[in-house]
Amino acid sequence: MRTVAVLALPDVVLFDLAIPVQLLGETLRDFGTETDGYRVRVCGLAPGPVRTGSGMPLVTEYGLDELAGADTVVVPGFGGLAEPVPAAVRTALRTVYQRGGRVASICTGAFALAAAGLLDGRRAVTHWAYATLLADRYPAVRVDPDVLYVDEGRVLTSAGLAAGIDLCLHLVRRDLGTAAANHAARRMVVPPHRDGGQAQFIERPVPGRPGDDLAQLRGYLTGALAESHSLASMAARARMSARTLTRRFRAETGLSPTRWLLEQRVQRARELLETTDLPITAVAHRCGFATPLALREQFARRTGTTPGRYREAFGATR
Prior knowledge:
Number of strands: 10
Structural class: alpha/beta
Shape: globular
Number of helices: 13
GO molecular function: DNA-binding transcription factor activity; sequence-specific DNA binding
Low-confidence stretches: 202-210
Distance between the termini: 17 Å
Organism: Actinocatenispora comari
Order of helices and strands: EHEEEEHEHEHEEEHHHHHHHHH
Mean pLDDT: 90
Protein name: AraC family transcriptional regulator
Keywords: DNA-binding, Transcription, Transcription regulation
Radius of gyration: 21 Å
Helix content: 40-55%
Pfam families: DJ-1_PfpI, HTH_18
Strand content: 5-15%
């Protein structure tokens, strides 16, 4: 069992706090074996009451010392950003990272990681409304205000509120594989995967009238990943120009058509590597990659590992 400490700082955002507690601690209870999954601990500066942003009462059983034994520490968003992050918190977060642990933040939780120096020289994201403040206060941080989450290895940050769900699903996918992440997503009734590079803003998430969106095209592409699809061929199927397709696609998904298609190919490859014993060459062809090398390059770029090693870690014969 992996231990996750969720650090509730004063004026914690309860929505942000609930995401890792629910997603990591509850939705996976009926998945896998007793040795898979997470043991979640909600911690405050000390055991006892924690002031919340909404005024609802919160009492934690654990304090900062619980971070010492955690594999991952998640810092939800919190208010009171004009006040300095307590020195004890900064030290505890640095200690977690220095001993090889993983730290993550949701929304304004990034300010705590930045105060501890853990975001210096790294890309990071926070809620779009606080991105400028984060960049101004911590100029060593490369703030990207336009994405859902950023994975920098053992340091991860997400945008505000619901983007924390995407981040936690990403953690599950990294730790336990696609099947576990899909299981958690079904329990949460959310999409199983939104790419971290997707924009925080989706201009037109709901079509203006029935049939006005590109869901039919996306459905076709998902079912025909083995085939070759150029921007021109996708535009022709959607009966619009390539420029219009790109603009409409970005408005509905936050990604270009080619980027979205590539993400679907890699996601399908993960599923095949987990659930089948198909040769890597066959996996590549079924997912629309011309060669195993093309699959390897795109797969490693998104997962940090090779298809072969991914199968060793998450395959059905594990």
